[in-house]
Amino acid sequence: MTKRLLTGNEAIAYGAWEAGVDFASAYPGTPSSEILANIAKFKDIRSEWAPNEKVSLEAAIGASIAGVRSICAMKHVGVNVAADPLFTFSYMGVNGGMVLISADEPGQHSSQNEQDNRWYAVSAKLPMFEPSNSQECRDMLFASYELSEKYDAPVLMRLTTRICHSKSIVECGDRKTVPAKPYKKDVQKNLMVPQMARQRRVVVEKRMNDLAEYSENNPFNYIEKATVKTKKGERVGVLASGTCYHFAKEVFGDAVAFLKLGYTNPLPNNLLDKFMKEVDTLYIVEENDPYLENWVKARGYKCKGKDTFPPYGEMTADVLRGALTGKQLPQIDYDKSLLVPRPPTLCAGCPHRGFFYELSKRKKIAISGDIGCYTLGFAPPYNAMDTCLCMGGAFSVAHGMQLAFDKSGQDIRAIGILGDSTFLHTGINSLMDIAYNGSKAISVILDNRITGMTGHQENPGSGKTLSGEVTPIINLKEVVKSFGFKHIFEIDPNDLKAVKKALDDALALDEASVIITVWPCPLKRMDKAEREQYGNPFTTKVKVDESKCISCKLCIRCGCPALSMNRKTNKAEVDFPQCVGCDVCVQICPKKAIEKETK
Amino acid sequence: MKNEKTKSILLVGVGGQGTILASKLLTIGLMQSGFDVKMSEIHGMSQRGGSVSSQVRYGEKVQSPVIELGGADILVSFEKMEGLRWLEYLRPDGEVVINDYQINPMPVVSGVADYSDKILDELKSKAKNIMIVDAFKAAVELGNPKVMNIVLLGSLVKKMKLEGMNWKEIIEKEVKKDFVELNQKAFEMGLKLV
Known about the structure:
- The complex is a heterodimer.
- Chain A is an alpha/beta fold.
- Helix content of chain A is 35%, strand content 18%.
- Chain A folds into 4 domains: 2-216, Rossmann fold (3-Layer(aba) Sandwich), CATH 3.40.50.970; 221-325, Rossmann fold (3-Layer(aba) Sandwich); 352-533, Rossmann fold (3-Layer(aba) Sandwich); 542-596, Alpha-Beta Plaits.
- Chain A contains 20 helices and 23 strands.
- In chain A, the strands form 6 sheets. A 7-stranded mixed beta sheet of chain A has the order 3-2-4-5-7-6-12, with helices on both faces. In chain A, strands 15-14-16-17-19-18 form a 6-stranded parallel beta sheet, with helices on both faces.
- In chain A, helix 3 packs parallel to helix 4.
- By secondary structure, chain B is α/β, with parallel strands linked by helices.
- Chains A and B meet through strand 8, helix 10, helix 13 and strand 21 of A and helix 1, strand 2, helix 2, strand 5 and helix 3 of B.
- Strand 8 of chain A pairs antiparallel with strand 2 of chain B, so a sheet runs across the interface.
């Protein structure tokens, strides 16, 4: 065994490798993205980025049916996309063991909602694990595959942000040899038409009863007795799973007993009854929904849960301490009025900047955005987004808006905006809706040649696979053309004249059009060929000729973090380390005071 | 109720400043010294020029990977205003290592807010143990402003009295080959600044 300091995501990768997993697939999404990136480092495992979560799960299911162990990882909202195959695969059961990792986001650090995916385990009838640290990620994943094959069930493992992105020490071992199970055609099990599915429904029910037994007797559900006596003699107990166990342990210490659950569907009724015999007051510490609390109450016990702790956000030690005592640890009091907020911004050289700069000047439009770096187009100075809902929704939402605007006589043009990876995820279906049902909504694909926000993962349009192999590039323009759109404008977003003309033309038309902007993200790792294709970009700088600058501040309106007004001279100023020479500001300056730096 | 033995180090800065690498090296050093270690950081949207933090906790047995308000023993800030922003996480008797370096947040860049020149004074008057480091100057002297993070790591390690560890080797193992020497020099420079 080797000791390593690993994030939960890295520990999942080690665990998958050790458990003999042969196939892994995912669509990136914070906080789950690094799971597949780390699994891909193990060459024994075939690892892939799928176009979306549903596809990734289906591929992992296929691998399981064929007889090998497979894994699939996604963020919480990704499971919504993959829910269709998930529910039915639960009926089919596995051949090779299969585990789905759901990374939930209490506190919504980088997410649009705070849904609790433990309910998926209940409604899809899946066994579920909730690790509380990196070691448990590895250990429980290992156990998941044994369980999956023994009970003929896919396993849901629920992580949260602090599990995924916190490091702790993990003991890792070697890869276990798991021979593929021979494939046997079995339509009763694997072909879910109603007559078969009704049979499997019965099997699933029995399986969940068997798993209830497992829940009572496994190394991950256990009682920890209090080791320090309280003065009053009151017997206090805490029920917690996942990272909440460590948060609660930090605050309650060793003066209370713990019922620590690592396996949480089905829940261990007998173990709870046993625990409650030794406890006068029970606290339940859990993030998101009152999942454990509802169970405890249904068993007829009183408890302090969501009535004591906040119903949302993370249950970190300060939150728990505040809820229990009304006080935090002593803090330094200081003048917070000196602080200026530091919101995330589009990076210097971001190809979305030129497009949003021009778009922000337009009137009588409603902009339907999507999930990605370009969502930051909502923020000042652009304020160029009205709505943002979910992955791939931009075009279909714009379609509905446009039809409603037209029908109700509101003179507003709907514009849908999403990125290349989001288009290939599910935006492609939304664009079909516009092509098929015909509205005059304008659709914009901001193609920056990579999946940006989640950390630069390859996608079916980027030309490389997860393992770095060269693969055909899906030609977005040809795809769009094949849908039957008559007006397609493919432009360089750093060319402001071209952006302006495309918007003018699209808005002048009384029918649908598609604008595709193409320029790589400045943070993308490009090979030589790609760098040459874009003329060796991001290698130049711009400078300000102060004698020409008239302090009009027009350039500031492009929102570049590398460009500001010097407080002393009141002239525009370029932050050299940040500037990558996209030249958007050069085109904005009416006095030609910003020039390309020539070396 | 707090486990007194667990120490908490909070590293803060602006996305892109390299807080993650600095805290990674720190945690490896702590693990090799025989401590239980946990670290927590937030990825995703805040990376794009936002305020970022890496939280490192070590001791005999660490529970929460997250530092609570008023819970940090040492606050290391890679940027001035971020030091002040996260000061509520410092224990009243905790120590501050602050990089005398300014990165303008977007509202300052776009001219709707001012970056106060009283930030350092406020920090000095409120934090009992504060050390101001010019890691930018040191990094520029080494020829690459990006190694500010490792200069600051050197200063932090000195402050934690852990300079006896084999940090040279840790850097050699964890940093890309071409940058090993530069980072080792930056680390040495940081040690000397304290």
